Amino acid sequence: MMEQYEAIIVGAGIAGLTCASYLAKGRIRTLLVEKEKKTGGLVNTFWRDGFAFDGGARAFENSGILFPMLKGLGIDIEFVKNPVSIGIGERWVRLESCDSLEKYANTLSETFPDNASDVSLIADEIQKIMGYLDVIYGIDNPLFLENMRDPKYLKDTLLPWLIKYQINTRHIRRLNEPVYAHLRRLTTNQALIDIIAQHFFQDTPSFFALSYFGLYLDYSYPMGGTGVLTEKLTDYFLKAGGSILTDTAARQIDTEKHEILFSDGQKLGYKQLVWAADQRTLYNALQGEVSSKVNKQRSLVTSSSGADSIFSLFLGVDLGRNFVSELMGAHAFFTPEIEGLSSLSDWRNAAQAGIEPLYKWIASYLERTTFELSCPAVRDASLAPEGKSGIIISTLMDYELVKYMAEAGEYDKFKRFCTDKVIAVLDGTLFHGLEEKILISICATPMTIANRAGTHQGAITGWAFTNPTMPSESRFDKITSSVKTPIPDVVQCGQWTFSPSGVPTCVLTGKLAADAVLKKIKG
Asked: Is residue 67 part of a domain?
């Protein structure tokens, strides 16, 4: 007889693990299925030759969500503050308090002296949005609290916050314009706009982008690496009685019989299915006749583009953690040149002239892009051999560009070219002599992410803002609707929902999905 579960969760990233943990806590017989050999998804830490590298998120923002979730589950993780630095050429500013905004504005004014008044307007706009964030994340998210029904808490904390929350979400809705368009209202200097916004996804809403200055102040780093978070959630789920099936993918879903056929040939039954993996895989796996609503959503998912992806280098270097910290801190965003990416045409124009012109375009892109830099050992000395450091270097990169190079038979050469160019750029700017200090080098492209994480077009968060219609709920104040699907007894989590996205949103939607399943099963 086929084995039955009350709930099956497909996808063991941070959203799936959160959902699984709360279902196990609620004593629901749950199976968590993951296509990779281990859980964690893009929230992971891997080791090479004594160096630890964070494969996905470089640090975590709490957003009133992460820490309350851990506390509610009784999971103990040691965190340290994770200050972010911003570098523009040779100018640097450390973001350590709200006063850092003034230092950042001064850095921009020094870089663009003819636009000092524009910078002041932009700083005022960032300050205003930080104020909205202070309200939105002003208390621990009530969804994760045990005392939600306490009369004193309701009267003194929750109700006043809800009133302010409603007011501020209305302000946020008016900031849904893409950040580039919004900044053009404040300055005509395109290079200044690029410096502020070019490390955000294409057509990122202005609230999402400009709110990140405040979120940088909220970053924390878990001792042992970011992968500790998903490892702890995995342990919690197993100890609470849950079951995990790894190295197994869902192939077919019969929604009428509530059955799933997996890649290892076994077929399992479910009462409730939670989809915490790529949406395309879900709709491709559906078998038999489906409703018009399901077909409509399937068409939308199939025609939509994934969010931006990244190119990453993982370097083990013969440089001490103190030396690295003095240059960039633990976590930084660094733009080597003030001539921004808007000065470049689309890569497809260069490709029309041939491969060599395209390589020249890529070289120019890597000279002008913004890099996210992270050094795990600056936060935790045990994450690298003594006297050495691991440095993670990432930048946004178009999946279609990488796919084009692969189809042209240039993939290996492309990876070597990008690796050498990124090292050369950093060697000539921030890390003088870097090339001679490299002990190990690992390269990951958007195709690496697509192949290993299974996300559409190597997306690192979900769906692109450029889609005319989002395949998932994306309104800030409609987050509770984000877990719904048109498929009977199927909910979802971990999809792009509202800004800011990332780990807190995955945790929140994982909890919302668990609540929906618990309500359906237990009433």
From this structure: no
Name the DSSP class of 467.
S
pLDDT digits (tens, 9 = 90+) for 54-100: 998 999 999 889 999 999 999 999 999 999 999 999 999 999 887 88
Contact 7, 271 (CB under 8 A): yes
User: Buried b vs exposed e over 176-200: b needs ≥16 C-beta within 10 Å?
Assistant: bebbbebbeebbebbbbbbbbbbbb
Q: Which of 491, 493, 412, 467 is nearest to 445 (CA)?
A: 412
First to last CA, the chain: 27
* Residue appearing with tokens 């990453």: 312
- Asked which of 420, 453, 486 is the last residue of a domain, the reply is 453
**The CA-based dihedral angle spanning residues 420, 417, 308, 442, taken in that order and rounded to the nearest 10 degrees:** -50
Clarify whether residues 155 and 261 are in a common domain: no
Written as six digits, the tokens of 212 are 């990140």
Residue 342 sits in which domain range?
Answer: 308-453
Residue 492, in any domain of the structure: yes
CATH number of the structural domain spanning residue 270:
3.50.50.60
Planar angle of CA 223, 56, 71, nearest 5 degrees = 45
Spell out the alpha helix ranges (H) of 52-158. Answer: 66-73, 100-111, 116-136, 151-153
What whole-number distance in Å separates Cα of residue 404 and Cα of residue 3? 44
Question: Within the chain, how many helices (H) and strands (E) appear?
Answer: 21, 19
Q: How many domains does the chain have?
A: 3
Q: Are residues 272 and 196 in the same domain?
A: no
Model pLDDT for residues 300-328, shown as the tens digit of each residue: 999 999 889 999 999 999 999 999 999 99
153/118 same-domain check: yes
Residue 113 has pLDDT above 80, yes or no: yes
